Amino acid sequence: MRYALNRIRRVKDELEIERMRQAERATKAGFSVAAELIAPGRSERELQIEIEATFLRNGGDAVAYETIVAGGS
């Protein structure tokens, strides 16, 4: 089955590859800012907002799925 899928899988063109790289850069930036901002007293909602804003500031045009930020014991 795996080999059958490989035969029909579409090869990425340069534009798709660049978009994937940009998404990677935006994601990395978002997670980096989250790591810097995690602190006692900061709400999960504040972190979510900053993560998503950083994604967008760094070339993202949307989030792929709902952002989940959870903390506590």
Summarize the structure.
The protein has 73 residues and is mainly alpha-helical. It is built from three helices and no strands.
What does this structure look like?
The chain is mostly helical and 73 residues long. The chain is 62% helix and 0% strand. The protein has helices at 2-8, 14-37, 44-57.
Task: Give the topology, please.
Blueprint: H1 2-8, H2 14-37, H3 44-57
Helix pairs in contact: 2-3
Offer a few descriptive terms.
single chain, 73 residues, mainly alpha, 3 helices, 62% helix, elongated
Task: Please state the oligomeric state of the protein chains shown.
Answer: single chain
Low-confidence runs (pLDDT<50, min 5 residues)?
none
% residues in beta strands: under 5%
DSSP, total strands = 0
Q: Taking Cα atoms only, what radius of gyration do you get, to the nearest Å?
A: 17 Å
The number of distinct helices, counting runs of at least 4 residues, comes to 3
The average pLDDT is: 90
Helix content: 55-70%
Largest sheet: none
Overall morphology = elongated
Distance between the termini: 43 Å
Given helix and strand content, the structural type is: mainly alpha
Order of helices and strands: HHH
